Write the structure tokens for this entry.
Amino acid sequence: MREGRRVRVVFALIVIGLILAGIVAFGAFQARAQTAPARPDQQAFRGLYEELVETNTTLSQGSCTLASERMAARLLAAGYPAGDVRVLASPDRPKDGNLSAVLRGSDRDAEPILLLAHIDVVEANPADWARDPFTLVEEDGYFYARGASDDKAQAAIWVDTLVRLKAEGFTPRRDIKIALTCGEETSDTWNGVEWLLQSHPDALSAGFGLNEGARGRLDGEGNRVALEIQAGEKVYQDFAFEITNPGGHSSRPVPDNAIDRLANALVRLGDHTFQYEINPTVRAYFEAIAPVTPAHADTMARLDDRGTPDDAVARLSAADPAWNAILHTTCVATMVSAGHAPNALPQRARANVNCRILPGHDAAEVKAELERVIADPGIAVSLVGEPDPVSPPPPLTPAILDPITAIAGRMWPGVPVVPSMSPGATDGRFTNAAGIPTYGVTGIFADPDGGGVHGLNERIRVRSLYEGRDFLFELVKAYAAQP
């Protein structure tokens, strides 16, 4: 008996050793796959990507015009006629130039495809970063830099796609346009897509457009979970809450304190949940994501346009902030300022409330609900900036979706393609409102934490960037050949 037990123990140790060795070997394989030498065409793309990323395009110090000129030079060197490559800038904003280019198709009656991306980036203070934000750094399987992901990854891919198509001698059936635009991150100051629609509408006119927005989802181990396709987005709108008061000496406090009243209003806002809504895109998203999220699959199956149990919506909203965001309009305080002296009662208190509004609702409707929720007529609620255009989500027709699912199925077998609605905002809100159905399609898989987009040490996986490049190249060719 003891001898048999000893044999079993030895056998178990051998099995455990083999398993551990396999895990180590698999990890080493993953590491090699992540850092495998780039193909020659990928090396050429890396140079283009690096040039774009390292061209500072922040509002404060950068120049989108310089970035556009550098990408235009790439297209001209690839053989594009000068008349098909334009850098367009408003005379009063000479640094905010936009690149417009086109690969001519064979059928003049076919509607063009628009490849849209913005090249401006969020501000980045080098002192706060672990690496220079305006130098592309490749480290441990990632590219680091401001704009490495948002949105110079896709912008570089679009330029590279036109270069590759020209090198292949590919003639599309329909025109393929690209528009690299400025001002998406600071649209309250100026927005290139709005300006192009007004001043150079031919640069954007198309049957449909591909844009940033949805990305592939990775789990914490880097495994691909789903490839999202954005069809629609929420509307961005800031509101100001402001109250004024005569104030007085802080040694003689009174119940009517501007800061107290504003604080109470913000607490009421924080406790408020807007009515849930499930539009076709959101319903399709939960239907597609349910098989790969078994812990919540039963709850997702209970969602419906009407009559969904509140507890089901509440569970999904609590499980993931992104799910909460696509089920509700959300409004949250983001900035507060108040008072004028430490020894005086405040004469003014003000808060900025940032709302992301579900499609089909406008800023005036949300303003009325905010006023009802805070229940203080002494607090003025006003819109900050001009309201963004409102448009319904573009339809996910078979002509749009089928090429995506076919190519994704070949590249990533078993990974579901999931329709989604962005809780953020992209330039697609302007093109959709202008009658150009615009879809968020990248083929780029991102880490669960978002990769530092808009924050410190922005990054993108090297593997994900190169895969997204191949995916989008094949997708553009498929669309360009459609009847």
In short: The radius of gyration is 26 Å. The longest helix spans residues 2-34.
